[in-house]
Amino acid sequence: MASSEQLDNPILDSSIQTEVNVEPTQWAVKHDCCCCGPMVEVMVPNKKSHLFLRHWEFQPAFPILVTCLTLFCLIDYFVTAAPYQYKIIQIIAPFPIFIFLGLFMWSYFGAVCMDPGYLPFNWIQTQKFYYTWQEQLSGIAVTQEQVNFAKTPKNRPPHCSFSTSAGRYVLRADHICGWIANWVGKRNHKQFMLMNLYGGLYAGCLFAFQFGVKDLHQMFDREMSILIPQVLGLALDGAFMLVLICMFFQTLSELAINRTKIQKMKNMEGGKSYSCLESMQEVCGTGNKCLWCCPTPAFDETLVMTADMPQAKAEESD
Fold it and tell me: Which positions fall inside the Palmitoyltransferase DHHC domain (predicted)?
């Protein structure tokens, strides 16, 4: 949390030069979709152009894979396990399963689609902490000149890391996650954490309720057409449950000492002046603590950043 002195005093040195000659990046709207936002093409000199949905670089492979695996495990449960269960379990089980499924998908696509806290490579010209997607696209570094400008220490925003893969700074950059095809940063860290929690609980419910059949000793004495998908579903449910729950508690342990994964990889310490509560507020917001369990956005356009925490350079880890 920022002290009154930190809020009153400017973080940046007033002597920093803001007049630069680096040109903004060019982009054009390719398709306009009312539900997902416009499909935008960002021009990259001498290379293939990149496609974006608003601020998110269009990389749908892993989100589609995660959705398919999630639905497969759900359908597999209701086909191979539910018909053979006790009546009471058939009635009760769908409630926690669908509740955790809804929370998981909400958290997952929040982590995928939300702005993790991107700042343009030429942030020093405006020095804001919230940008529209149009401003973000104009601030993507696609040339070596722009990248070099962003890596200049005096141009770096406080508590930010520059990502060469994203072409932008990331506020409180934690790590880049292939499963969400996005960076985990200050603005979507809460959704990433809840995704692990609710995904683990969803998989755990599917795994546990598999054993609520009437004849448990004959559970694996079924036709191969039922047995094979049942065993596959059990393996996926168990693996996802263990991995996601472990990732959730690992995230909590790092938050307790206010350290990002980038800082951990570089053997750096977190912000020593932060308590565990203040560290949670860094990614979950300072509002009602009951909302910490809800995958709603933790921050609006108003965002206070402090300079008392060590910065880690992300460009070496992309």
Answer: 154-267
The pLDDT tens digits of the residues spanning 47-88 come to 778 888 888 888 899 999 999 999 999 999 999 888 888 889
Summarised one tens digit per residue, pLDDT across range 237-246 is 999 999 999 9
CA-to-CA separations, 178 to 87, 112, 118, 184, 186, in angstroms, rounded: 41, 10, 17, 10, 17
- Which tokens in the block code for residue 90? 């058939």
Q: Per the structure, how many domains does the chain have? A: 1
Q: Is residue 145 part of a domain?
A: yes
User: Which residues constitute the domain of residue 148?
Assistant: 4-293
Most confident range, picked from 67-71, 121-125, 167-171, 175-179: 67-71
CB atoms < 10 A from the CB of 264, how many?
A: 17
CB 203 within 8 A of CB 244: yes
In a domain, 307, yes or no: no
Of 204, 210, 293, the closest CA to residue 242 belongs to 204
Does residue 187 contact residue 116 with C-beta atoms inside 8 Å? yes
